[in-house]
Amino acid sequence: MLSALREFAYLTAPSAPTYRALMRLFYEAHLKQQHTLPPDEVLAGIEDSDLDLTPEALLLDLDALVAWGNLGRRRDTRRVGSLAEYARKRDLYYATARGLAIEGFLDAGLDAAEETVAVGAGIVSGMERQWAHLAELLSAPELHPDELEASWANLVRDFVALSGDVRLLALNLERKLSLEALDDFLEFKDAVRSYVERLAAELAGPGRRLRAGLQELSPDLRSRLLNTVAGVRAGRLTRGAGVLDAEGAERITVREWDGLLGWFSRRAEQGDGLEYGVVALRGAVSRVLAFVDAVHRTRELGLGRAGVLAELAAHLVDLPDASTAREELAHALGLSAPLHAPGVPPAQVVYDAWATPTESVLLSAVQKGKVAERFSADVGEVSREAKRAARDALQAERRRQRLLLELFEDGQLDLDGLILPDAAMLPEVLAWLSAGLHAAHDPENGAEGGAGLTPGPQGHQVRVSLTSSPALLRVPDGTLWIERGAALELLGQSEGVR
């Protein structure tokens, strides 16, 4: 276990690009069911690459991969026509199992394989029948070793698939139940639930009966089973063309038995066993049902909102004019509700936000603390860039105030038909209108004749008088329609302004 894994040496060797190209060639040939390659075919296979290899250098590289265990080599027994051809083709090379596994891992982009669940319904019941057949073979007066080994191999094969897929199924359902793929999940939700329910029922029924049979097997019959299976396997050829000796066969068989008995006998809190599978899969069924219920409730909520909007659209189409439709839409969507008017009873809230009086708030000055004591000399130093930025901002504000002041011709301004030269001036004009309208409905504001006063440009005051007709404001990038226009009058500077 502590020995170095030489098969990975070709990935970091000085000639790693050459070795990787050769191993990828053998890997792709293996995928095409061509398992052995002579040196001349290897050389022809890398002609399109940037590698410049001579036949002699190629043989040295192939021998290095053989020494590391990535490639194998065997004698070429084909008939050749000349001594030179024999010298070139005397060996055939093939990728070993470890070499193919490394290249397959690299070919997958260093990503783990997709975890899928492949066990079919009835697999646990089938394992129970296989164990019953094994028990009959063990108890029979005449033992049939080959049949016993084949039945045991089938049982172990199904067990490996079952134990792995129970774990993956619990993990995948925990991870993949999200609201990101609603349509895909809802299409097969019934199949997922029924499959998980059947598998959980099989684990709880035939699975526990099989566990009882494994635990009740006498030590003599268990030894007879393991020794017979190991004896049949001893001397067989392995996938790597090696012969399995008696010690190796016994070790593999005992490991299979320990894994089988341990998985079925393990407690639920220990995880990754029969009882854990029963608990995890039953919990997964509950999560599937809860997920489906949440999906349906979310869908119903969305469809309900869509239905309300559809009904609203049909109602707006039937209204006599656009002004009424705008009022109905604003009322339905809550656009006209004065959300900024605390203390107003709901019965007194009207649809027009401008006509709703606001609550006066008295703001008191905050006493300044001893700021100088916390003021450091480093902070007090202002850079030239900061001074320049402050000066530029002051000049820009003065230009903006001057442009706003120029809007008033002879101190008068009518919003209807007003053309603003800059879109940045629109918020200021709307702020005058909003503040003036609120002030007009404030009894403590001191306004006269239904007009409100609001601060204007360069310290002036603006008197806002509502009109009964709508107004159109034009800016360089569009037109703004206002349901009620207003006439603005520029007054003198307010007190305190110099």
From TrEMBL:
Highest taxon listed in the record's lineage: Bacteria
Pfam families found in the cross-reference section: DUF2397 (PF09660)
Full protein name: TIGR02677 family protein
Region (Disordered): 443-462
Organism: Deinococcus marmoris
